[in-house]
Amino acid sequence: MVEMHVEGLSLDPQTRKPIVILRQNDGKGLLPLWIGAMEAMTISLVLNGEELPRPLAHDLLLMVAKALNGTLTGVDIVDYRDDIYYAVLLLRGPAGLISVDCRPSDGIALALRASVPIRVKTEVFEKAAREQEPGSIHPATRHHAGSDAATDMARTADARKEADTLAALLAKGAVPEDLGEAAGPERLRDLLRALEPVSRNKM
Region (Disordered): which ranges (predicted)? Predict the structure, then answer.
Protein backbone atom coordinates (compact mmCIF):
# COMPACT_ATOMS: atom_id res chain seq x y z
CA MET A 1 0.00 0.00 0.00
CA VAL A 2 1.12 3.55 -0.78
CA GLU A 3 0.53 6.00 2.05
CA MET A 4 -0.84 9.34 0.90
CA HIS A 5 -1.96 12.68 2.26
CA VAL A 6 -4.14 15.46 0.88
CA GLU A 7 -1.98 17.99 -0.95
CA GLY A 8 -4.88 20.35 -1.67
CA LEU A 9 -7.82 21.10 -3.93
CA SER A 10 -7.74 22.20 -7.53
CA LEU A 11 -10.12 22.54 -10.45
CA ASP A 12 -10.00 20.87 -13.84
CA PRO A 13 -9.62 23.76 -16.32
CA GLN A 14 -11.48 21.81 -19.01
CA THR A 15 -14.37 20.13 -17.18
CA ARG A 16 -14.52 22.69 -14.32
CA LYS A 17 -14.88 19.83 -11.85
CA PRO A 18 -13.14 19.89 -8.46
CA ILE A 19 -10.06 17.73 -7.98
CA VAL A 20 -8.57 16.56 -4.71
CA ILE A 21 -4.83 15.98 -5.02
CA LEU A 22 -3.24 13.16 -3.04
CA ARG A 23 0.52 13.09 -2.62
CA GLN A 24 2.72 10.23 -1.50
CA ASN A 25 4.01 10.77 2.01
CA ASP A 26 7.55 10.59 0.66
CA GLY A 27 6.66 13.31 -1.85
CA LYS A 28 7.41 11.33 -5.01
CA GLY A 29 4.02 10.98 -6.66
CA LEU A 30 0.60 12.60 -7.04
CA LEU A 31 -2.83 11.10 -7.53
CA PRO A 32 -5.63 13.43 -8.72
CA LEU A 33 -9.22 12.40 -8.00
CA TRP A 34 -12.17 14.16 -9.61
CA ILE A 35 -14.88 14.71 -7.00
CA GLY A 36 -18.22 16.46 -6.55
CA ALA A 37 -18.67 20.07 -5.48
CA MET A 38 -20.18 19.22 -2.10
CA GLU A 39 -17.40 16.74 -1.31
CA ALA A 40 -14.84 19.39 -2.27
CA MET A 41 -16.45 21.86 0.10
CA THR A 42 -16.55 19.47 3.05
CA ILE A 43 -12.88 18.59 2.45
CA SER A 44 -12.06 22.29 2.18
CA LEU A 45 -13.63 22.97 5.57
CA VAL A 46 -11.26 20.48 7.21
CA LEU A 47 -8.19 21.73 5.34
CA ASN A 48 -8.93 25.24 6.59
CA GLY A 49 -9.66 24.15 10.16
CA GLU A 50 -13.24 25.41 9.98
CA GLU A 51 -15.64 24.02 12.57
CA LEU A 52 -19.40 24.34 12.17
CA PRO A 53 -21.74 24.41 15.16
CA ARG A 54 -23.79 21.51 13.79
CA PRO A 55 -22.44 18.26 12.30
CA LEU A 56 -22.40 17.64 8.56
CA ALA A 57 -22.96 14.15 7.12
CA HIS A 58 -19.34 13.03 7.49
CA ASP A 59 -19.16 14.32 11.06
CA LEU A 60 -22.40 12.52 11.86
CA LEU A 61 -21.11 9.22 10.48
CA LEU A 62 -18.06 9.36 12.74
CA MET A 63 -20.29 10.23 15.70
CA VAL A 64 -22.54 7.24 14.98
CA ALA A 65 -19.54 4.92 14.68
CA LYS A 66 -18.22 6.15 18.03
CA ALA A 67 -21.63 5.70 19.66
CA LEU A 68 -21.60 2.08 18.48
CA ASN A 69 -18.10 1.55 19.90
CA GLY A 70 -16.55 1.68 16.46
CA THR A 71 -13.49 3.57 15.27
CA LEU A 72 -12.37 4.53 11.79
CA THR A 73 -8.77 3.33 11.47
CA GLY A 74 -8.04 4.16 7.85
CA VAL A 75 -9.23 4.58 4.27
CA ASP A 76 -7.87 2.46 1.43
CA ILE A 77 -8.32 3.10 -2.29
CA VAL A 78 -8.31 -0.45 -3.57
CA ASP A 79 -9.38 -0.52 -7.21
CA TYR A 80 -9.46 1.51 -10.42
CA ARG A 81 -11.76 0.34 -13.22
CA ASP A 82 -13.25 2.21 -16.16
CA ASP A 83 -11.90 5.53 -14.87
CA ILE A 84 -13.57 4.98 -11.48
CA TYR A 85 -11.74 4.60 -8.18
CA TYR A 86 -13.08 2.34 -5.44
CA ALA A 87 -12.31 2.70 -1.75
CA VAL A 88 -13.13 1.08 1.58
CA LEU A 89 -13.45 2.38 5.11
CA LEU A 90 -11.55 0.34 7.70
CA LEU A 91 -13.62 0.21 10.87
CA ARG A 92 -12.70 -1.45 14.15
CA GLY A 93 -15.49 -2.38 16.55
CA PRO A 94 -16.79 -5.13 18.81
CA ALA A 95 -16.86 -7.54 15.84
CA GLY A 96 -13.25 -6.78 14.94
CA LEU A 97 -11.90 -5.03 11.85
CA ILE A 98 -14.34 -4.69 8.96
CA SER A 99 -14.22 -2.89 5.62
CA VAL A 100 -17.09 -0.91 4.15
CA ASP A 101 -17.32 0.10 0.50
CA CYS A 102 -17.29 3.87 -0.07
CA ARG A 103 -16.51 6.55 -2.61
CA PRO A 104 -12.92 7.81 -2.33
CA SER A 105 -14.15 11.39 -1.85
CA ASP A 106 -16.26 10.40 1.16
CA GLY A 107 -13.42 8.28 2.50
CA ILE A 108 -10.98 11.18 2.23
CA ALA A 109 -13.40 13.56 3.95
CA LEU A 110 -13.79 11.07 6.81
CA ALA A 111 -10.07 10.33 7.03
CA LEU A 112 -9.27 14.03 7.37
CA ARG A 113 -11.81 14.43 10.15
CA ALA A 114 -10.62 11.35 12.02
CA SER A 115 -6.90 11.98 11.33
CA VAL A 116 -6.38 8.44 10.04
CA PRO A 117 -4.17 7.19 7.18
CA ILE A 118 -5.17 7.35 3.53
CA ARG A 119 -3.60 4.57 1.48
CA VAL A 120 -3.71 3.52 -2.16
CA LYS A 121 -3.15 -0.04 -3.27
CA THR A 122 0.22 -0.18 -5.01
CA GLU A 123 -1.19 -1.75 -8.18
CA VAL A 124 -3.88 0.94 -8.36
CA PHE A 125 -1.36 3.74 -7.92
CA GLU A 126 0.93 2.32 -10.60
CA LYS A 127 -1.96 1.76 -13.03
CA ALA A 128 -3.20 5.32 -12.55
CA ALA A 129 0.31 6.65 -13.12
CA ARG A 130 0.60 4.72 -16.40
CA GLU A 131 -2.76 5.87 -17.70
CA GLN A 132 -2.34 9.49 -16.67
CA GLU A 133 -1.51 11.57 -19.74
CA PRO A 134 1.48 13.87 -19.21
CA GLY A 135 0.42 17.45 -18.70
CA SER A 136 -3.29 16.67 -18.37
CA ILE A 137 -3.45 17.91 -14.79
CA HIS A 138 -2.91 21.61 -14.69
CA PRO A 139 -4.37 23.59 -11.79
CA ALA A 140 -6.66 26.26 -13.17
CA THR A 141 -5.13 29.71 -13.21
CA ARG A 142 -6.30 32.40 -10.85
CA HIS A 143 -7.74 34.52 -13.67
CA HIS A 144 -10.48 33.37 -16.00
CA ALA A 145 -9.55 33.05 -19.64
CA GLY A 146 -10.32 36.28 -21.42
CA SER A 147 -11.02 38.25 -18.24
CA ASP A 148 -9.05 41.13 -16.84
CA ALA A 149 -7.89 41.55 -13.25
CA ALA A 150 -10.71 43.94 -12.33
CA THR A 151 -13.38 41.53 -13.53
CA ASP A 152 -11.72 38.67 -11.68
CA MET A 153 -11.49 40.68 -8.45
CA ALA A 154 -15.17 41.62 -8.66
CA ARG A 155 -16.16 38.01 -9.29
CA THR A 156 -14.01 36.83 -6.39
CA ALA A 157 -15.57 39.40 -4.06
CA ASP A 158 -19.04 38.17 -5.03
CA ALA A 159 -17.90 34.61 -4.43
CA ARG A 160 -16.67 35.53 -0.95
CA LYS A 161 -20.09 36.97 -0.10
CA GLU A 162 -21.73 33.82 -1.43
CA ALA A 163 -19.28 31.69 0.55
CA ASP A 164 -20.22 33.55 3.74
CA THR A 165 -23.89 32.93 2.97
CA LEU A 166 -23.18 29.25 2.34
CA ALA A 167 -21.28 28.93 5.62
CA ALA A 168 -24.22 30.48 7.48
CA LEU A 169 -26.65 28.07 5.81
CA LEU A 170 -24.42 25.08 6.57
CA ALA A 171 -24.20 26.20 10.19
CA LYS A 172 -28.00 25.97 10.32
CA GLY A 173 -27.97 22.57 8.66
CA ALA A 174 -29.37 23.89 5.37
CA VAL A 175 -27.91 23.43 1.89
CA PRO A 176 -28.99 25.56 -1.11
CA GLU A 177 -30.93 23.44 -3.60
CA ASP A 178 -29.04 24.89 -6.58
CA LEU A 179 -25.57 24.09 -5.24
CA GLY A 180 -25.13 20.73 -6.95
CA GLU A 181 -24.80 19.87 -10.63
CA ALA A 182 -27.09 22.75 -11.57
CA ALA A 183 -24.56 25.31 -10.36
CA GLY A 184 -22.66 27.02 -13.14
CA PRO A 185 -18.98 26.11 -13.54
CA GLU A 186 -17.77 29.68 -13.06
CA ARG A 187 -19.77 30.00 -9.86
CA LEU A 188 -18.45 26.70 -8.51
CA ARG A 189 -14.89 27.68 -9.31
CA ASP A 190 -15.14 31.02 -7.51
CA LEU A 191 -17.10 29.57 -4.61
CA LEU A 192 -14.59 26.78 -4.08
CA ARG A 193 -11.73 29.26 -4.33
CA ALA A 194 -13.35 31.51 -1.73
CA LEU A 195 -13.89 28.57 0.60
CA GLU A 196 -10.34 27.28 0.14
CA PRO A 197 -7.92 30.18 0.67
CA VAL A 198 -5.04 27.80 1.42
CA SER A 199 -5.31 26.31 -2.08
CA ARG A 200 -6.51 29.45 -3.86
CA ASN A 201 -3.38 29.66 -5.99
CA LYS A 202 -4.16 26.17 -7.30
CA MET A 203 -7.75 26.88 -8.30
Answer: 129-152
User: In this structure, are 93 and 19 located in the same domain?
Assistant: yes
Q: What's this model's pTM, rounded to 2 decimal places?
A: 0.65
Residue 80 sits in which domain range?
2-135
For residues 140 and 13, the answer to whether their CB atoms sit within 8 Å is: yes
On whether residue 140 sits in a domain, the answer given is: no
How many domains is the chain partitioned into structurally?
2
Verify that 90 and 188 share a domain, yes or no.
no
Mark whether 17 and 103 lie in a shared domain: yes
Other Cβ atoms within 10 Å of 89 Cβ, number = 22
pLDDT in tens, 41-68: 899 999 988 888 888 889 889 999 999 9
Residue 141 falls inside a structural domain:
no
Asked if residue 90 and residue 13 are part of one domain, the reply reads yes
Q: Of 85, 114, 107, give the one whose Cα is nearest residue 39.
A: 107
